Every structure is written in C-alpha cells, then in structure tokens.
Amino acid sequence: MKEKDIIKKWLDHKQLTTDELEAFKNLDAYNSYIKISEAARKFESPEYNIQEELEDIQRLLSKHKKRSFLSSQINIFIRIAAVFVLGIGTYFTFFNENTITENTLVSEKISIELPDQTIVTLNSLSSINYKNKDWDNNRKLELDGEAYFKVAKGKKFDVFTSSGVVSVLGTQFNVKQRGDYFEVVCYEGLVSVTHNNKTIKLPAGKFFRVIDDEVLNSNTSLIKPLWIENRSAFSSTPYKYILREFERQYNVTIIAKNIDQDKLFTGNFVHSDIQTALQSITIPMRLKYEMNGNNVTLNKQ
C-alpha cells in the first residue's frame, strides 16, 4: 500500500495491518503525526486556538522540507490536518453553544416552557439564561428582572440573581430583582431563599423583600402575581420603584419634580390604559401629571 493510503487509513481510525503499521512507524513524519493526534485528543473548547495549532503543525513539519518528495507529501498532510482540526473545532463549538437566552422588551411579557415543562413567565425588560443540555439533572437558570415560575416536580430548581438564590423542588413563586430591589413571593409549596449568606424558608402566602439592604418578611393573600394579568400591584413600596415599573410597562420617561420618591405607596395600576394608570399612581399621592409624547411630568397639586 502506498504511504499516502496508509496515512489516510490512519487518519480515518481504521485498523492497520502489521506491515502497514511498521511502514507507518518508519515514515519520517511519524512523530509529527502522533503529536497532532495527541493534541486533538486533548482538545477542549473554547480555549482551543485553531490558527495556533495549524502554525504548530507547520513548525513541526518544516524540518522535512529539504526533501522535495516529502515536502509535497507534507503539504498534502497539512491540508488534511487543517480539515481535521477545523472539523473538531466545529464539533465542539456546535455542541457547547447550548446556552439559551430568553428576554423581553419594554411593555412585553412572554411565557417560556423549559425542557421539564416548567413554565416561566417573564415581565417586561427581563431575561433568563439556562443550559438545555442535561436539564433534568441540572435545573438552574439566571434571572435579570422579574419572572413568575410554575416549576414541574423533579430535582432541585435554582434561580440565580445578583441579589440571591431561590431554590425549590416544585412550586409556584415570583422573583423580582431590579437593582437594589429583590423580592421573592411563594404562592405554592416551599421556597428557599439565600441572600447575603443567610437562608430562609418561605411557605405559600409569604414573601421576602430587600430594598436598600432593608429586609422585610410579610404575607400575601394573592394566589399569583397580578402583573401576569396586566396589572402591577405594590404594598408599602417607595414611590421611585412604582415610577420605574411604570416606565417599563408603558415605554415612557417620567420626570418627577420636587417629589419625595422615597414616600411609600400602596396600590396598583393597569398595563392597558395609560391615562387610567397615571391616575392610579398620582391621585393617591396628591400629584398631577402632564404628557408630552413619551415624557410624563409629575408635579405636586
């Protein structure tokens, strides 16, 4: 068998005969072929640099270019190796790019079904990231914003936020993380919340909230968050958080002049009628408003 046929057979991982194996070992470039094979087996995505590996191949084989016949053979091998290495790179890139991102725009809400049939409903300007591979054994995701979870029963389910981690086995709960505002409400089952290295258990009907490092544990009579029905509700919440939520739901900019935005607000506003919504958040606070395009200016009455 010709040398190039032996090389091709070896690259295809086909069994060489005793004579072929001996002929292969006697090739001048045998050690180079083995080094390339070992480098491919040690390949780990994404650190693998295809360009650097090809340069290494050329350096390893450059010493053989004195002989014209072998030089021609080497050039052929380099092209084969390039295809081989690029193929491996494509394989690892394809199978490791398994992170899925779901997000919402201003005034948008969407529901996502995860691989275990868990349902996640995202509020406006929110996002989740999770890995689809081996989901049943590794149920965890990252949340930025607000989401309502109806978790299918199974292994532990973790929600990671910049303010803390929420863990459950199967339940219904809401997580909101907006800047220095962090809130978890349990509607069914039992929720574990870890914040600042402290863990608490929330049964159904309880909520945990942190605003500016001030912790509040209290009750709720709701069976699900009102925002999934297009209404935002608040209980003893600083007014500035109501205004930010209003901006997310209506895609407007609120200009608050000479208003105490730390004053607590209890109430709600709808997401379907901006005039009604503005009245809901201004009348209780004894404020008036003016609209100019996408700008809303609030003033004292």
| Biggest beta-sheet profile | 13 strands, mixed
Compute the gyration radius: what is it? Answer: 31 Å
The DSSP helix count reads 7
The dominant shape is: elongated
Reported CATH architecture of the largest domain: Sandwich
Give a verbal description of the structure.
With 301 residues, the protein is α+β, with helices and mostly antiparallel strands. The protein has 3 domains: 3-96, no CATH class; 99-226, Jelly Rolls; 230-300, Phage tail protein beta-alpha-beta fold. It contains 7 helices and 18 strands. It has helices spanning 3-11, 18-25, 30-41, 50-62, 68-96, 239-250, 274-282; strands spanning 99-103, 110-113, 119-122, 127-131, 139-150, 157-160, 165-168, 172-178, 181-188, 190-195, 198-203, 206-211, 214-219, 231-238, 253-256, 264-270, 287-292, 295-300. Strand 12 and strand 13 form a beta hairpin. Helix 4 (50-62) packs antiparallel against helix 5 (68-96). Mean pLDDT is 82; it is low at 41-48, 65-69 and 88-96. This is FecR family protein. It comes from Aquimarina celericrescens. The chain crosses the membrane at residues 76-95.
What does this entry show, briefly?
The chain has 301 residues and is an alpha+beta fold.
SSE topology sketch:
Elements: H1 3-11, H2 18-25, H3 30-41, H4 50-62, H5 68-96, E1 99-103, E2 110-113, E3 119-122, E4 127-131, E5 139-150, E6 157-160, E7 165-168, E8 172-178, E9 181-188, E10 190-195, E11 198-203, E12 206-211, E13 214-219, E14 231-238, H6 239-250, E15 253-256, E16 264-270, H7 274-282, E17 287-292, E18 295-300
Parallel strand pairs: 5-6, 15-18
Antiparallel strand pairs: 1-4, 2-3, 3-5, 4-5, 5-8, 6-7, 7-10, 8-9, 9-12, 10-11, 12-13, 14-16, 17-18
Helix pairs in contact: 4-5
